[in-house]
Amino acid sequence: MAWPPGDDVVEVVRGPEPGGPGGFYRAFGETMRGLKTTFRRQFEDVPTHQYPEDKVPVYPRFRGRHRLHRFEDTGLEKCVGCSLCAAACPADCIRVVAAENTEENRISAGERYAAVYEINLSRCIFCGYCEIACPFDAITMGHDYEMSDYHRSDLIFTKEMLLTEPLERTPLRAEGE
Amino acid sequence: MTLLGDINYVEPWWMQILKSLVIFLVVFNFVPVALMADRKVLGRFQQRYGPNRVGPYGWLQPIADILKLLSKEDFRTWNSVAFLHRLAPILSVIAAAGVVAVIPFGPVTSIFGTDTGLYGMDVSIGPLWVFALGSLAFYGLMLGGWASGSKYSFLGSMRAAAQLISYEVAQGLSIVGVIMTAGSLSLVDIVDAQAGMWYIVPQLVGFLVFLVASVAETNRPPFDLAEADAELVQGYMTEYGGSKFGAYYMAEYLNMLVASLLMVTFFLGGWWLPFGIHPPTWVYPIVVLGKMLLFVYFFVWIRATLPRPRYDQLMSLGWKALLPLATLNALVTAIIVVVSD
Known about the structure:
The complex is a heterodimer. By secondary structure, chain A is α+β, with helices and mostly antiparallel strands. Chain A has two domains: about 30 residues; about 100 residues, Alpha-Beta Plaits, CATH 3.30.70. Helices cover about 20% and strands about 15% of the residues of chain A. Chain A contains four helices and five strands; from the N terminus they run H-E-H-E-E-H-E-E-H. Chain B is mainly alpha-helical. Chain B has one domain. In chain B, strand 1 and strand 2 form a beta hairpin. The model of chain B has no long low-confidence stretch (mean pLDDT about 90). At the A-B interface, helix 1 of A face helix 1, helix 10 and helix 11 of B.
């Protein structure tokens, strides 16, 4: 299309020239309108979440910090130390060392168990591939997102830390919320 | 003694010291209140809470801010001029605080058996005193910018000075109408003359010009081109830190309070209440301070609403709109005063 377009294409709407009594009057009126707009904002609700006290509830499929699970009836660990999660992990943040279960020392339901299961949360990208890779649903992504710490070494979560319930539960979003 | 002005009656020396102390302590304590109101009210305008962590509802936040500024290192750049660098913020505070001396908070009353005016002093050259100290405040900014030894500070002080000079002309002319109507330069007489009707009604144009010029004079947004937080290196106080920056900051808020008090005195009837209500005398200072807070609220309201104008727009508003309006107002008022006499 040729530029500038003809008069039939675009109707140019111009305000009055700035300056002069007309512009001054208009500026005064617009200022009053602006004052009215901002004045009304004062009586509206504040959308701020007072964060540490008032946590935003997460969705059920929110991918937070990992959790390891046990069987509810026997109390045995679901993880059999197969290292599929470590293989699937794109950030290479999971370390699994497997060991054999014995009759007197039975830890998991399968043949082997994870003697060492560590997740380096400072590397984790929370993609959820470990959850998908796991054949026994032993590892899932939890709902906790408050994981900051003072030392990088404190961010390496061991098996015991991943197995226990979180101290503070993250609020879950209710149906239709 | 008529060196500074005729006070018409003799107050004992201890009463003069006492009331100056009381006035300055009360007005100075409104500086953190204004600071807090600025942040809290601005927060409500922008649909957020503002500071609410320090103390109940965050009301101790200014104390924390002041303590932080006071405990910081007192540094200056190597090529700054030490004496002037220290003097400049002090000048700013003195110029702002000096105006409070002439603000009337109430009529002459009897305190401890002596007749005392509820004001620092009743000078016969009230507005002149105000504008003389306002001009002195330039030196605070100019010296601060120049003595910092930084070109950004210097440019900032130039911006501030050009803006202040432009708007002081309009501000000075806008109260000429008030002075002519009251027939006196004494601020107490001006307030007394408003017992029947506040000057905001007959001097509406003068009031609007004074209001806009006051916002520009106090360097408050939208006329904060001297600092222009988001756009420029900060302005004349770029090289200042710690308690010296705190002094500039305090001078800015004190200037806001003083501008509010001046508007109350010139246009909003000082200590008079509308509809012929005559409360006991001890209520008068509270009325003045209440009206002052009204204007502080208005300053914040304006800040929340209007964007910052371009520098040439600022100058053309000052010289091409406000100055002719103020002159016209003075002219028309003069004619009406002469005709109605």
